[in-house]
Amino acid sequence: GEDVEQSLFLSVREGDSSVINCTYTDSSSTYLYWYKQEPGAGLQLLTYIFSNMDMKQDQRLTVLLNKKDKHLSLRIADTQTGDSAIYFCAEKENNYGQNFVFGPGTRLSVLP
Amino acid sequence: KAGVTQTPRYLIKTRGQQVTLSCSPISGHRSVSWYQQTPGQGLQFLFEYFSETQRNKGNFPGRFSGRQFSNSRSEMNVSTLELGDSALYLCASSSPGHETSGANVLTFGAGSRLTVL
After folding, report:
1. Is the predicted pLDDT of residue B98 greater than 50, yes or no?
2. The CA-based dihedral angle spanning residues A7, A10, A15, A16, taken in that order and rounded to the nearest 10 degrees
3. pLDDT of A40-67, one tens digit each?
4. Which of A1, A61, A69 is nearest to A35 (CA)?
5. What are phi and psi of A16, to 5 degrees?
6. A36 touching B, CB under 8 A?
């Protein structure tokens, strides 16, 4: 079945850029997503990208998609301590339904 | 508009008991999905309901079941609880397409944290 991989930890200094990487297996995914989870909370949608795009920018967030390599990345510019959270990459299985496959999550720690 | 509401937020059960969790989706959303989140397995898809019918099912034993009511509210039930069922159970609702694109966007509730002793 589909699989999504991410590195588990990332630590950056406040003010630096963070880059979280993800690889996925389902080449038929139409959209790819980034979700954020803060402690004690559910997941919050950050952004998504259509598979025929290679870049999407949304304020401090930049998503890059390399469809040939099935590689997705999320760049957070000017990372703040409030960005400390777990970030999940996700793809939706290509069927008539809403079952998404999530990566293991990358725990981002922002150091002052 | 109100978000996805899950109840209860926290509960403690003992092995062998059963539990029912509730989820109220965003008004107008007809699809409700359930996910189990554990430190070891991450986020795993349980099942999805749409218009009171189970549309997709993940790879979980039959002890895990769910249903959806005519108002789109959903419940999931776990019978004969095991220690390994301790997890955060997340519910998410979605509409067929996002407001400005065709993307399927899940909106999650805060989850129900189940501890099995």
Report:
1. no
2. -60
3. 889 999 999 988 889 999 999 999 999 9
4. A61
5. -80, 170
6. no
d(CA B98, CA A40): 26
Alpha-carbon A35 to chain mean position: 6
Is B103–A105 a contact, with Cβ atoms under 8 angstroms apart? no
Q: Which residues on chain B are in Cβ contact (under 8 Å) with A96?
A: 55
Between strands B31-38 and B10-13, the pairing is unpaired
CB contact under 8 A, B92 and A43: yes
User: Is B107 within 8 Å of chain A by CB?
Assistant: yes
Residue-wise pLDDT for B14-64, tens only, equals 999 999 999 999 998 889 999 999 998 899 999 999 889 998 899 999 999
Q: Which two three-digit tokens encode residue A85?
A: 């959270």
